[in-house]
Prior knowledge:
By secondary structure, this protein is an alpha/beta fold. It has twelve helices and 19 strands.
Amino acid sequence: MRNVTPKFSDQELFHLAEKFGTPYFLIDEAALRRTVSELEQAYQDFKGPFRVAYSTKANYNPTVIKTFVSEGIMFDLTASNELYFLLKCGGSSENVIYTSITETMAEYEQVMKLGVRKIVVSSYNGLLNLIEARARVGDDVEVLIRVNPEVSVKAELRFSMKHGKFGVPFDSADEDSAMSLLRKILSTPGMSFEGFHFHLGSQIEDPSCFAVALEKLESFVLGARRELGSFPIRTIDMGGGLPAPYGRTVPTASDFSSQVLGQLNSMIESLGDKFTLIVESGRFLSAESTIMVTRIVNVKKFDETKYVYVDAGYHNLLDSALLKHEYPVEVIPGGSSSPRKSVLSGRLCDALDIFPTSNRSKLGGAEPGKLVVFRDVGAYSFVIGSQFHCQPKPYILMRTTQGSHIVVRKGQDLDELFSEEGGDLTNHKHQ
């Protein structure tokens, strides 16, 4: 039985609302740590070394990063700015696996100078840039190839389709293939081939796609060794995709590991390498830890419909507008359900500012002055928020494992937002 989702009392939420205003975000430190433990336990029967990696893009709040640093896990980074945050938070470059999307020479040179050595390449031109950057920096680099296994994936977001944005196919007539990249890496001095990386999607509902991808990878390695000679496999990075529940029943980390552990352990035997297995997670590790609390400021009734207006908007949870994402929502304190259909409306002057709800939403008793809690908002929420409608950034708080509440990002006031937007700069008068 999973025990991840944090529980907060009504009194606690109202007290913080009075002290810090609404909306605000509240992170539970213990929940962050529980997800790491859950993932590590799921793969405890793997016969080689196992590492969890946190995909920092999901939530780069420094206190979240520091929490995961203290857990001793790795970090999946896709931008040098994320590396800056990690190092400022006490993290180590040795615990980084770096997967660039643009793969420029300047970027590779920058992160290598800061000590990053495990780098994933996913294009031939990117590999050439890495080779040049390595020559300039002068240190060896451990290179992984990001492959696109081109397997069918049942998921909210699929990354493994043919000719997709991410990774290279195992083999093709073009230079952008795993075989072409592997051949170049093995023949280039200072380049140590580390292994393979793939990422199949986000919110994966059927973990069997991982078994198919691993089968294709194993077949490719054995075939490549027959053609190129023996080479070691030190790391296999299976990417992420483990689903956060968002109020639904979804496969657990153990459900995923049960699909692939036998196959992974047999790969150690067939390949003759006790490789390190890395499982990356962003959403799975951070989503359930956090809630957003907003206040009901008005209600309006039309025949069978009841509009419930809150003082947050889609600028706080952009997934609700971009992907029509249904967060679990609940009125605090709750009440009896209305015969009218409840529509949860944000405070923005935009017809898109309607929060999607489902039969899991608990909007009974919605009246001005009560609170609405959005759960599972710890991933891809405030990190992609905006200040639309001159809305300052809200407070982000954390409940520590000791039970105290600390500020982990100060809320803005209007003067600070005005200054941030250039309001205090000296400008030429408009002609």
